[in-house]
Amino acid sequence: MLDCHVLLSQPWENWLTDSLSQLRSANLLRTLRPVVPTLNAVEVVVPGEVLWPWLAEGGVVPAVSASAPDATGGGVLKLFSLNDYLGLSTHPAVCQAAAHAALLYGSGPRSSALVGGHTHAHRELECALAALKGAQDALLFPTGFAANLAAVSALACDAGAVVFSDELNHASIIDGARLAGRAGAAVHVYRHNDLAHLERLLVACPPGRRRLVVTDSLFSMDGDFADLQGLAELRQKHGFLLAIDEAHATLVCGERGGGAAESAGVADQVDLHIGTLSKAAGAHGGFVACRADMRSLLVTRGRAGVFSTALPAPVVAAATAALRVAAEEPWRRQHLWRLVERLGAGLGVRAASPIVPLVIGGEAAALAASAALLARGFHVPAIRPPTVAAGTSRLRISLSAAHTCADAVQNLTPFLTTQLA
């Protein structure tokens, strides 16, 4: 990198220095670590100059390398940290679809969807997503974050709206609710999965207000599910709009991969199915599946989509191919859930989903456990504040259909058991 140190005005220099110092002293300053992907969806190559400082951060003396060390002293890591739940990101059909679209249409969309970036390929993907979710229509967004941000802020856009949000919802929902609050909407946060608390808030809401209840369906840090059947019953009773973020459940849950709402038998009670294409679909982008008239509103008022460049054609083609492969190869989802069951049994914990958290407690202990696993060739990340509450730092295991039973049970479990002893 070039040494282009630009001097800032003194207030900015002071603020930047102080902010970085505070983050560093609180052990909250994060680092990006360049890795080399492979065509195995759950393996990466890590150069030695990246691996050794990474190990040292967790207090591991670099005396051993990860499995299959390369010539630079790095190694190959088996990933238990990604969200490629079906292993589709490297599937030949998905890769070929992306490559073919790039050759036909180029790498970029050239404009926003409204101006001219919305193609027949985009519309085909939207229709496929609507069918998957059992919805009337769907709208693509550049990311899942943008989809949540746009949906919540566009619907709760004035003082006539009230938002009710689970306390453990994803940051994109929280930020959408903050925007709604700035626009005049009231925002209430209910205790995690506490529907009695939610109902008390609903009952206290003034009559005639437009009420929006929004929740993750599968919570990303705890691996537990929202009580969607209970929410559907409350919806019938209180008449609110129900939006669920199916980011971690789409293609993972349900007989067809329609998500947690399909699995719970309440897909027809959900008004907005929000999701991402960057997890089980192995591609990129976000979407909202909903009524056609709701889509029309989001096309016009969903600012996170209106003012963003459309998804590139290769990404759209990859996502469409991934949906097709997921439907044609249901064994992937079935294998994934077998891994969940076997890992839970091996660790003696209740594993409810492909996200299996092992709460350690303190930050230093979680970082040390993660580094010890890293030294053995397993990337199991330590999740710590502010992502999770103080005192609940944890190892977060993410399973994929690309893992074998040997990966998840025979190889990883003994080392995890040692770290938890």
TrEMBL record:
Domain of life (superkingdom): Eukaryota
GO terms for MF: pyridoxal phosphate binding; transferase activity
Cofactor(s) the protein needs: pyridoxal 5'-phosphate
Keyword terms, alphabetized: Pyridoxal phosphate, Transferase
Entry's Gene Ontology BP terms: biotin biosynthetic process
All residue ranges annotated as the Aminotransferase class I/classII large domain in the record: 80-406
Pfam families per the UniProt record, alphabetical: Aminotran_1_2 (PF00155)
SUPFAM superfamilies from the UniProt entry: PLP-dependent transferases (SSF53383)
Family: Belongs to the class-II pyridoxal-phosphate-dependent aminotransferase family. BioF subfamily.
Protein's name in the database: Aminotransferase class I/classII large domain-containing protein
Organism: Elliptochloris bilobata
